[in-house]
Design brief:
Length: 231
């Protein structure tokens, strides 16, 4: 799979003031210099990012290393974001790796990764961001909805790493663009593609997420555009 990264700030939002699913990433990160975060067709990641100590690594090696650390530490985890989208058949540009992890095991995750040379770039009650061999961001599953997402994440994997389901990805996408309207066009496109590639979506779960943000009408419009029957 070829992934192309974007050049720019690594400030990303998973939630907001109205964030019942997962929290908003509140801090602002330093913008990357020109040339940062470029992925070659061979999936080799060459990056340098001001504000976060990083090295040169293979994106797949980075994924495998973090996954192995979390497995050894007994920390339940799943991919979210672009790599989870890719596992479900939706190609998406990305500039980082995101995991959802058990919020009760964050200390174990942090210790295991620090023993492998990672350092903490930012930590809060909701998010852990680490650097060193490569930047990796962890959203902590502490709320009922995100804990349920993590518990369900088993149907599809990327390099043996489980990913959250398409319905849960849609929920995160809705929350993301509602909290940052600049994301709306891309996130809606991702939602439509997820609807297109998912054989039998759980519409009740999708509606549960959409109703949190009064976005069910939008989801129904994307469903019609995707040529799919609804509930």
């Amino acid at each position: 799979m070829q992934i192309r990264g974007r050049v720019g700030s690594r400030r990303r939002q998973h939630g907001g003031t109205d964030c019942p699913i997962v929290p908003l990433r509140a801090q602002t990160e330093t913008a990357a210099p020109p040339g940062a975060w470029r992925f070659t067709p061979h999936i080799t990641l060459i990056y340098y990012l001001t504000g976060r100590d990083v090295a040169i690594a293979s994106i797949t090696d980075l994924l495998d290393s973090v996954h192995a650390c979390l497995e050894a530490a007994g920390v339940d985890h799943a991919l979210i974001g672009a790599f989870a989208l890719a596992a479900w058949g939706v190609q998406r540009a990305t500039n980082d790796i995101d995991f959802l992890i058990d919020g009760a095991k964050v200390a174990a995750a942090r210790s295991a990764l620090e023993n492998k040379g990672f350092t903490v770039f930012h930590a809060s009650d909701e998010v852990l961001q680490m650097a060193g061999p490569g930047p990796v961001d962890f959203v902590l599953a502490r709320r009922p909805l995100s804990q349920a997402m993590l518990a369900r994440a088993s149907a599809r994997t990327f390099r043996g790493i489980k990913c959250i389901g398409p319905e849960d990805l849609i929920g995160l996408k809705i929350q993301a663009y509602k909290n940052d309207p600049r994301r709306e066009l891309q996130d809606r496109a991702d939602i439509q593609r997820l609807i297109e590639v998912t054989p039998s979506p759980d519409w009740a779960r999708i509606k549960q997420y959409a109703d949190l943000f009064s976005e069910w009408a939008t989801v129904e419009d994307l469903r019609r555009r995707a040529g799919r029957n609804g509930p």
